[in-house]
Write a structure and sequence with these properties.
With 69 residues, the protein is mainly α. It is built from 4 helices and 2 strands, in the order E-H-H-H-H-E.
Protein backbone atom coordinates (compact mmCIF):
# COMPACT_ATOMS: atom_id res chain seq x y z
CA UNK A 1 0.00 0.00 0.00
CA UNK A 2 1.21 3.48 -0.86
CA UNK A 3 0.59 6.27 1.62
CA UNK A 4 -0.19 9.57 -0.13
CA UNK A 5 -2.19 12.70 0.32
CA UNK A 6 -5.54 12.55 -1.43
CA UNK A 7 -4.94 15.98 -2.93
CA UNK A 8 -4.34 15.83 -6.68
CA UNK A 9 -0.75 16.76 -7.49
CA UNK A 10 2.12 15.78 -9.77
CA UNK A 11 3.35 13.54 -6.94
CA UNK A 12 0.03 11.66 -6.93
CA UNK A 13 0.37 11.03 -10.67
CA UNK A 14 3.89 9.68 -10.14
CA UNK A 15 2.73 7.44 -7.31
CA UNK A 16 -0.14 6.08 -9.39
CA UNK A 17 2.23 5.36 -12.28
CA UNK A 18 4.60 3.57 -9.87
CA UNK A 19 1.76 1.51 -8.39
CA UNK A 20 0.64 0.53 -11.88
CA UNK A 21 4.18 -0.48 -12.84
CA UNK A 22 4.32 -2.74 -9.80
CA UNK A 23 1.21 -4.45 -11.20
CA UNK A 24 2.79 -4.64 -14.68
CA UNK A 25 0.16 -2.21 -16.03
CA UNK A 26 0.31 1.17 -17.68
CA UNK A 27 -1.60 4.36 -17.09
CA UNK A 28 -3.01 4.11 -20.61
CA UNK A 29 -4.10 0.52 -20.02
CA UNK A 30 -5.81 1.35 -16.74
CA UNK A 31 -7.58 4.33 -18.32
CA UNK A 32 -8.76 2.27 -21.28
CA UNK A 33 -10.00 -0.57 -19.04
CA UNK A 34 -11.98 1.91 -16.94
CA UNK A 35 -13.46 3.98 -19.77
CA UNK A 36 -11.40 7.10 -19.11
CA UNK A 37 -9.19 9.01 -21.52
CA UNK A 38 -5.57 8.94 -20.40
CA UNK A 39 -5.28 12.71 -20.80
CA UNK A 40 -8.28 13.25 -18.52
CA UNK A 41 -6.87 10.81 -15.98
CA UNK A 42 -3.57 12.70 -15.88
CA UNK A 43 -5.34 16.04 -15.53
CA UNK A 44 -7.54 14.73 -12.72
CA UNK A 45 -4.57 13.25 -10.84
CA UNK A 46 -2.53 16.46 -11.11
CA UNK A 47 -5.42 18.78 -10.26
CA UNK A 48 -5.62 20.48 -13.66
CA UNK A 49 -9.16 19.13 -14.06
CA UNK A 50 -11.49 19.53 -11.10
CA UNK A 51 -15.12 18.81 -10.56
CA UNK A 52 -17.32 15.87 -9.65
CA UNK A 53 -16.23 13.55 -12.49
CA UNK A 54 -12.53 14.28 -11.93
CA UNK A 55 -12.95 13.62 -8.21
CA UNK A 56 -14.70 10.34 -8.93
CA UNK A 57 -11.88 9.26 -11.25
CA UNK A 58 -9.23 10.05 -8.63
CA UNK A 59 -11.22 8.17 -6.00
CA UNK A 60 -11.61 5.18 -8.34
CA UNK A 61 -7.89 5.03 -9.15
CA UNK A 62 -6.92 5.32 -5.51
CA UNK A 63 -9.37 2.59 -4.48
CA UNK A 64 -8.29 0.25 -7.27
CA UNK A 65 -4.59 0.69 -6.53
CA UNK A 66 -5.14 0.83 -2.75
CA UNK A 67 -3.51 4.25 -2.47
CA UNK A 68 -4.41 5.55 0.99
CA UNK A 69 -4.96 9.06 2.34
Amino acid sequence: MIDLSHTPSPELLKAVRAALLLRDQSLTGWARANGVKRQNLCKALTGQWTGPRAGAIVKQVRADLKVEH
